[in-house]
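Standup notes
- DV: blocked on the single-chain target, sequence here:
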Amino acid sequence: MRSLAVASHVSPFSATRRRPHSSASGREAVSQCVKCERNQDRPLGALRIGYSQGSSQRHGSKNLFTPAAAAVSVEQIEVSTYLPKGDMWSVHKFGGTCMGTPQRIQNVADVVLGDSSERKLIIVSAMSKVTDMMYSLVHKAQSRDDSYTEAVDKVFEKHMSAAKELLDGEDLARFLSQLHSDISNLRAMLRAIYIAGHATESFSEFVVGHGELWSSQMLCYAIQKCGASCSWMDTREVLVVKPSGPDMVDPDYVESEKRLQKWFSRQPAEIIVATGFIASTPENIPTTLKRDGSDFSAAIIGSLVRARQVTIWTDVHGVFSADPRKVSEAVILSTLSYQEAWEMSYFGANVLHPRTIIPVMKDNIPIVIRNMFDLSAPGTMICKQPANEDADLDACVKSFATIDKLALVNVEGTGMAGVPGTANAIFSAVKDVGANVIMISQASSEHSICFAVPEKEVAAVSAALHARFREALAAGRLSKVEVIQGCSILAAVGLRMASTPGVSAILFDALAKANINVRAIAQGCSEYNITVVLKQEDCVRALRAAHSRFFLSKTTLAVGIIGPGLIGATLLNQLREQVAVLKENMNIDVRVIGITGASRMLLSDTGVELTSWKENLQQEAKPADLPNFVRHLSENHVFPNKVLVDCTADADVASHYYDWLKKGIHVITPNKKANSGPLDQYLKLRTLQRASYTHYFYEATVGAGLPIISTLRGLLETGDKILRIEGIFSGTLSYIFNNFEGSRSFSDVVTEAKEAGYTEPDPRDDLSGTDVARKVIILARESGLRLELSDIPIESLVPEALKSCLSADEYMQKLPSFDQDWARQRHDAEAAGEVLRYVGVVDVLNKKGRVELKRYKRDHPFAQLSGSDNIIAFTTSRYKEEQPLIVRGPGAGVEVTAGGVFCDILRLASYLGAPS
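- DV (later): unblocked, structure below
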């Protein structure tokens, strides 16, 4: 249908304030609709919406398809009052949620009256859900669903009850009269649609626009009720738009400005309440600005009057740095540039429709997004690039947005290179099927072009491309037209990215550290955004990782604890005491989402309550299942960074490290079994770790909480050459030999150490020297030596006769029989001015290691230890033998060991982007 004559609402707020006369019957309205349809091909068949003041008084508030109303053109009205423009105008737009109830409409009126601007233009949406109800009416009628009549009744009841609560007296009577008239006409039109089984676009848009007519009239009455002068505007008399594509229109600013001037000449007022969403075509046919059209209405009208500011009132505090449903730490942005808002809205951020920004941007009119339900919140201002922002990193990237349910189409072939028109042929085929291309990326070699389209459109696109390039595919000039399903787009948006080096590097580093693979990349030369395509299942993790990396939110670690024994339990208690401090002061959010022991495991999607983890592990736990435990962690898409902390001494658990790292799970452990196990497995593990962005930290394997591994790495990475590493690596044996002096027996000291908790349940595990040998092999391998544990000679402190004891108790009972041998060794050492110490040695020059009981002079650093201290001496090309680099401190105990693991967790957070 090319033309439809519609008589728009005449303002019920004219100076005469007359009650409307009775409206034409529904039959007459449908009759006029049919006449318009029949005359659509005649050159003069298109009737115009127009009004004279005379017709206004004759027809009152009719909303009819009447030639009498449409016969007078807007151009025939003489301009008698000049339309002022400029900063005296403020424009407010209130969304459907703001207009959702009578009380909210009254609250809107209060906000309008509280604005001190000289002149105010108020744009309103329909009441909440009404537009959907109106679309449903049309759909039901054309589907010949009889329930459309009941749906009409619900629309009527909703507005009648709202009016009765909000208005009274003559205002209520006048509004209800108009409402009855409109509903009567709608019933007639919907009946015609029901009979025809079809609704033209113009009929549909005329129907759905009624919600704005009713809500704006109620608001206007509410403002007048408060004693303010207020005029009501049906924007179909003023806004003229032209179709520009599917579900898109472009405003005709010149014609709209003329019509606004002529409208204002008839009804000059300081407060104007206008309908959002609806407009007219150049032929005066009612239309809409499509979905989100009320924001567009406000921007257009703000541009027409050159307003000081356009305020969009909604139910959120402003524009977030990311979707708060996906990133709970998303923050409200105080300012955005027009370009940033444009980019964000294009990529699906809940900001504004991209077209809404165009009218105000050309006149540099700020848009402020505010929360109607929290007037204290300042909201977000969208304007020219703010001049007061420094070019620091977090100001460069303002926000992140995502689009889901996309497919990537890749057209590839050597025959594309250097052939003009290939891209044109590809996108012409895509255009022919009406698909929307979201993003395009092309290799500079011209070997391939890939682009993203909505998943629902990709089948048609693929078929069109295969048909278009059938010959090229058959001849081999094109190798494939490939479709990759299940994709999402992540866009980083910021105007200042263009002038700040390294932004792209930081983004891709954050994604790599979250183990996220990027399928395609696009960035325009303006550098307002960087767009990446990735798997949809990785989208939330990618968003959180990127958002976190740019300091917009906390670096979050999802942690799984394996082994809640002495070390594991102590670590959990340390985390409990520190998580709030880490979150507040260091921007690190540690979430323990799983704890597993040998028999039970406790799982949580968002974080175990650390104040009661022991009780919950007993009462709410499931049977322990390590594969399911790891799966729970790896398949959590909420947190981008995942880490398993192995607090066991189990070789079987350690054997899984490689697979965990390969899945992108970081590993932290005090368990020595992996790094001191078979050499080939160790080399395989370290090769994987070095080749990926997945981290493997094991500081606590050698010195508990002492920085032994990190010191060694620092020396090597700065070019120093390790010659020898020698040390007392066992806190248990350090305690024993520090206290084995005077007249004390060796067995008494061992008993004391056991009772104090320094030894393993069976002291032979410590006295055998195997634990020290494992530490030696770890340091030897870190120094570049390729040694097996069997290559390390160990001087065991367990007498051969006691190795066969069946229990620790039996061993402890028989140990005193060897006290004389130990006393003799001590006496010989003391006679020479020396002490006994159990040490491990890495001889890098000779490529070997050993574990032995040695004697040291009393002035040697190793002889001056106390308690369970460890001491390690690094002899290097920088730190000579006479003055080696020494690291000394507590080397045993669950507190310091758990503290060492905790330090590794924080080191991981720093590597992943937490501020240091």
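- Follow-up: The chain is about 40% helix and 20% strand.
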